[in-house]
């Protein structure tokens, strides 16, 4: 009995060894492998793009901070609530929360940063819709570099939301770059023409010439506009030839 059982087991093992896997199962395994590989590569590429965008926003933040000698042009006196519309990588909100540790810093954006301090509150929100913030609750509202994200007919809604949430005597500060270079050469002139055409088709107002009128229409008063020239290119002494203008519109609700 023992020998027969051994022969049966040995025979079964031999048959299992000679069996070949089904071609379909092999194909599915290969397909699954490359599908996962493709997802992995796509994920890595997206992370690399996010890192490049994060680095760009970081450099831009410190350039503006250096040029303006601070994170705001508005003089803030112990604000209780600070709101940033469109927080990007969150560096401005982070520094403001650190500088004003007794204040509550609220950020609005579709994509939220990874770092959040105890006195920060982030809302995953579209600023083109109703803001998840109470009326007359903010002392200071800040927004920058959103001119290519907000269409011309959407600005009134955004400004109305700012007016709704700001307290009496509060202040709103808007910073927008002038995206067309001063005194451009032939190549830049061609680029400007192309860029203007694309923005017109997308209903984007590059120059925001109507901003003061929009602010007044919403109800803001004591509107102020400051211009800051930043030299770019290799010839830094020729500030008038290659420059970008940053527009700031601090406004007061009374």
Automatic annotation (TrEMBL):
Residues 16-25 have a biased composition (Basic and acidic residues). Residues 82-170 form the Methyltransferase domain. Residues 1-32 are annotated as: Disordered. InterPro entries: Methyltransf_25, SAM-dependent_MTases_sf. Transmembrane segments: none annotated. GO terms for molecular function: methyltransferase activity. PANTHER family: 2-METHOXY-6-POLYPRENYL-1,4-BENZOQUINOL METHYLASE, MITOCHONDRIAL (PTHR43591:SF24), METHYLTRANSFERASE (PTHR43591). Pfam families: Methyltransf_25. This is Methyltransferase domain-containing protein.
């Amino acid at each position: 009995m023992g020998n027969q059982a051994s022969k049966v087991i040995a025979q079964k093992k031999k048959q299992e060894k000679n069996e070949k896997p089904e071609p379909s199962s092999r194909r599915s395994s290969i397909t699954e492998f490359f599908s996962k590989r493709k997802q992995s590569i796509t994920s890595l590429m997206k992370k690399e793009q996010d890192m490049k965008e994060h680095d760009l926003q970081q450099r831009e933040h410190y350039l503006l901070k250096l040029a303006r000698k601070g994170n705001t042009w508005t003089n803030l006196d112990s604000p209780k609530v600070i709101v940033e519309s469109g927080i990007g990588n969150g560096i401005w909100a982070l520094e403001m929360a650190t500088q004003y540790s007794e204040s509550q810093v609220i950020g609005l954006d579709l994509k939220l940063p990874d770092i959040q301090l105890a006195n920060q509150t982030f809302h995953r929100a579209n600023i083109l819709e109703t803001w998840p913030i109470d009326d007359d609750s903010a002392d200071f509202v800040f927004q920058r570099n959103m001119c290519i994200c907000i269409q011309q007919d959407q600005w009134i809604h955004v400004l109305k939301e700012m007016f709704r949430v700001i307290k009496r005597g509060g202040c709103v500060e808007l910073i927008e770059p002038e995206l067309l270079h001063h005194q451009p050469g032939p190549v830049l002139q061609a680029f400007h023409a192309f860029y203007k055409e694309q923005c017109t088709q997308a209903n984007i107002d590059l120059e925001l010439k109507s901003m003061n009128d929009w602010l007044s229409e919403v109800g803001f008063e004591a509107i102020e506009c400051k211009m800051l020239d930043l030299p770019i290119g290799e010839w830094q002494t020729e500030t008038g030839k290659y420059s970008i203008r940053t527009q700031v519109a601090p406004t007061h609700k009374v």
